[in-house]
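Thought: the user wants the 3D structure for the chain below. I'll pass the sequence to the structure tool as-is, report back what it returns, then summarize two notable features.
Action: structure_tool
Action Input:
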Amino acid sequence: MSDTFLIIDGHALIYRAYHAFPKTLISSSGQLTNAVYGFARILLKSIQDFDPTYLVVAFDHKEKTFRHEKFVDYKAHRPPMPDELISQIDLVFQVVKSMNIPTFQVAGFEADDLIGTITLLNEPKGIDNLVVTGDKDMFQLVTAQTHVFIPGRGRFSKDKEYTPDAVLKKMDVRVDQIVDLKGLMGDSSDNIPGVKGVGPKTAVKLLQEFDNLDNIYQELEKNPDHPIFKKSLIKKLVDNRELAFLSQDLATIKRDVPVSYDLESCRVKTYDKQVVVTLFEELNFNSLLKFLPEDEFESSVQDSLF
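Observation:
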């Protein structure tokens, strides 16, 4: 049985928790803690469920990334992080540090790129990667050895682990076609433009017919009379060719980030449980105390966190 390398997508889960958990979660000092609580809960459940051999948390860096250099409007439409969320970020770092979990953060890159790099380094070693995130962009990393796990948002939304087959079923395209899909339809969440007027159905149809973005444009040049190329679609593709390939590039997770990475340093370590208990009590996370792993990160309880 292969070792499991559990990678937590820090900021993706912080945002997910902030929007999923109620703002009635407040510490005794009056600090809003819904994002911290949700993050801690997902972290503890992941440890409980997957019993990893290796465990890290990857975070975005506050500086702009290389994608902003390529496209100045990348994520430009996003509103600033709310003050009540900003005030919780340091607390999330405290939770991770208190549990003696390594963190990765590199200026100029997003957590996605760090995760993509780490998973690629791990695969030749025969290690199984499990990426816990709320970001479907991670689907492009999925292989037989690297799965993406997206926690449910509540009682009506179940956890889902994505294999290559599960990605295909969800997206109607293969893992290796995800960035081509983004090149065509764009991604409003990241302000990636894509081809204006081309939506998911048309993008999927084009990829199912021609396999990838390069082939679509090559076929358009060689055989513009193909029945799939309606007059209006031809105009959209021609007018937005440059944006299509730029969008594909922006959506591609970089997998050669110059990160200082040593496998053994990521092995699950012992931690001072009392330090975490003290922190959780200060944050009024008393309901999570019984789910803290023992010193060897082996849970002593059988109850589920969800």
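Final Answer: Structure generated. The chain has two domains: 4-168+254-291, 175-251. The first strand starts at residue 4 and ends at 9.
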